[in-house]
Structures are given as C-alpha cells and as structure tokens.
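Hello everyone,

My group is preparing for a crystallization screen and wants a predicted model to guide construct design. The compound we'll soak is zinc ion. Before spending weeks at the bench, it would help to have a computed complex in hand. I've included the protein sequence and the ligand's SMILES below. Output in structure-token form would be ideal because that's what our pipeline reads.
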Amino acid sequence: MVEIDVRGLSAKRIYEGELAFDYEPESGLLDIPFTEFASPVHAELRYKIAEDQTVEVTGMISFTLKGACSRCLEPAERRITGEVNGIFETPEGDGETYGYRNVVKLDELLRDSLLFALPSRLLCDACIDIPED
Ligand SMILES: [Zn+2]
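Reply:
Good plan to model first. Here are the tokens for the complex, ready for your pipeline.
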C-alpha cells in the first residue's frame, strides 16, 4: 500500500505533493448482494505536511461496481466516486485523526473512505431514475 515518507520528505524540504495510484480493494468491504468490484480503486490525493508534522491528506477515490440491480436483478454497472479527507498526527491520533510514526500509511484512511463511498445498493440505469418508494 502507498505510504508518505514524512521524515524523508521533510529532510528534503518537500511539504506537499500529489499521489495518483490504483489498488485492489478488500472484497469483504462490499456487502451488496450479487455485486463485485469491476475495477481497482483509483485514488488521486494531495498531501500537506504542516510545521508541527501534522499531515493532511485530501482527494478522491473512484471505482466501478458491477452485478445485479438491487431492484430488478438486471445487470448493472456503476462508477462510484468518494471523497478522501484525513488528518495524520504524530505519534498518535485522538480518534478524530489518524496516528503515524515517520511514515504515513494510507490503508486505514482509504478503507474508511471506501466504506463511506460505498452505496447501500446497486441500481441499473432504468431503476436509478425511479423515485424511492
Ligand atoms: Zn434495475
């Protein structure tokens, strides 16, 4: 998984940057019946390292879900995007933030962002326009 080497970057006086990468999501995160990830998750992130070594990571993730429509069971495929927004503090987070030592590991933030972005069901193009009953 992708990491931000805060100590190494700080030594080089680099305090912000961008990261773009793809990764395979944990299939266990998805609990919509008959649905799977049809693509790796694409992440586009920015990071900023503050003077006190607090690291802010923001950006977007996107991925495709594929399976049976939760309403009519016809094949459905949908591109989902979600926001990424996390603060990393050293050595420990306070519950609202994540902790790190020297290197920010993005696993937990990406997992949380993915869980937040996941819809509760997958709808096909015909069903997505039907109002909720
Ligand atoms: Zn449908």
